[in-house]
Amino acid sequence: MFIDYETFRMRTDALLSRIAGLCRAAGRNPREITLLPVTKTHPAAAVEYAARYGLAAVGENRVQDAVEKRALTAAAVRWELIGHLQSNKARLAATHFDRIQSVDSEKLLIVLDRAAGELGRKLPVLLQVNAGHDPAKFGADPAAVGRLLELALAKPHLQVDGLMTIAPLSDDPAVARRTFAHLRTIRDQQAARSGIALRELSMGMSGDLDAAIAEGSTLLRVGTALFGPRE
Ligand SMILES: *Cc1c(COP(=O)(O)O)cnc(C)c1O
């Protein structure tokens, strides 16, 4: 059985105060950080809870699942794609998502830009970087981010809001921290080089959000801590 709204509300209250505490410890303003509830594998009620609480967007990792879920709810939220995107699904993704966080190849840039142009919209994206050099993760190689960013900034129908990463799974919290520090360094270098702010640093999930906040995250993608374990 899926959790009830009251449970969600209490967990979200608790998580937001925890985030505020971590921000204070890191000398950061909690307003710099957005909590993105990750509703993947959960019913449409999860999206409705998020909207009712006042959270503006939800994260989903599969295009088809999100399209189906979206048809089941009238909740006024923005939808963000956080999972790997295949280019044959790019058009569908550009149609149904308000932002795509998992752009990691030139091919995707081309297809998304074309689709957004045909839809008459400017599509916000984040470039996903494999900042932890994890062979099990998608994302552009850190050495290739400069070129990918140049290509992205040249696309008339895409708007690059920043960078995203997923830390390698590890028992050692230092691994996530190093990964997030690396993403921030890449962002700072690329922002200086391009003159584009690249404001968003989408990093940190239920298990590693402390490290992410300490290293400058602006977007925490949290599923388990809010909705409980996924089947
Ligand atoms: C599932 C997922 C999350 C949320 O993970 P939790 O550990 O449940 O908080 C965050 N980011 C991405 C890319 C995911 O696929």
Distance between the termini: 11 Å
Q: Percent range for helical residues?
A: 40-55%
Radius of gyration: 17 Å
For the record, what is the CATH homologous superfamily label? Alanine racemase
Q: Which strand order does the major sheet show?
A: 2-3-4-5-6-7
Ligands bound to this protein structure: pyridoxal-5'-phosphate
Specify the number of helices: 9
What are the low-pLDDT stretches, counting only 5+ consecutive residues below 50?
Answer: none
State mean pLDDT (0 to 100 scale): 97
Could you spell the SSE succession in H and E letters?
Answer: HEHEHEHEHEHEHEHEH
Tell me, what is the CATH class? Alpha Beta
CATH topology: TIM Barrel
Q: Identify the quaternary structure here.
A: single chain
Total strands: the figure is 8
Overall outline: globular
Name the beta content range.
15-25%
How many domain regions? 1
Q: What structural class should be given to the helix and strand makeup?
A: alpha/beta
The main β sheet shows up as:
6 strands, parallel
How is this fold's topology laid out?
Blueprint: H1 5-26, E1 34-37, H2 44-53, E2 57-60, H3 63-71, E3 78-81, H4 90-96, E4 99-103, H5 106-118, E5 123-128, H6 145-153, E6 158-164, H7 173-194, E7 200-202, H8 209-214, E8 219-222, H9 224-227
Parallel strand pairs: 1-8, 2-3, 3-4, 4-5, 5-6, 6-7
This protein binds pyridoxal-5'-phosphate.
Pyridoxal-5'-phosphate (PLP) binds next to strand 8 and helix 9.
